[in-house]
Amino acid sequence: MSKDRILLRCLLLSTSSRNIYRHCKDKKKRGKIVGAMIGQTILYLMLMAYCVLNCIGYGHFGLAGSIPVMCATVIAALSFIFTFFKTNGYLFNFKEYDMIMSLPFTSKSIVACKFIYMYIKSLPWYLSVSVSMLAGYAYYVRPPLAVYPVWILLTFVLPVIPMIAASFLGFIIARIGSGFRNKTIIQTVLTMIFIIFVMFSRFFIEDMLRNDKTEDVLSSMSAATDSAGKVFLPIDWFRGAVADLRISDMLLLIGVSLILFEVVFMLVGRSYRKINSALRSHAARRSFVMSERKRRSVLNAIAFKEFKRMTGSTVYLTNGALGVIMCLVGGTVVLFLNLDKIIRPVLKDAPFTMEMLYPVIPLVIYFLIGMVATTAFTPSLEGKNYWIVQSLPISRKTLYQGKMLFNLYMTVPVTVFATAALCISARAGVVNTLLFIFTGILLCLFSTAWGCVCGIKHMRLDWENEVEVIKQGAAVTIYLLPNMFINMGLMVGVVALGTVVSPILISLGLMTAVAVLAALSYLRVLSLTRE
Amino acid sequence: MEKRPMLEIKGFSKSYGEGKKAADNVSLTVESGDIYGFIGHNGAGKSTTIRAIVGVLDFSEGEIFIDGHPVRKEPMECKKITAYIPDNPDLYENLTGIQYLDFIADVFGIGAKERQKSIEDLAARFEITEALGDLIGSYSHGMKQKLAIISALIHEPKLLVLDEPFVGLDPKAAFTLKQMMHEICEKGTAIFFSTHVLDVAEKLCNKVAIIKHGQIIASGTMDELTHGESLEDVFLEVVNE
Question: Of A32, A181, A246, A345, which has the fewest Cβ atoms less than 10 A away?
Answer without folding.
Answer: A345
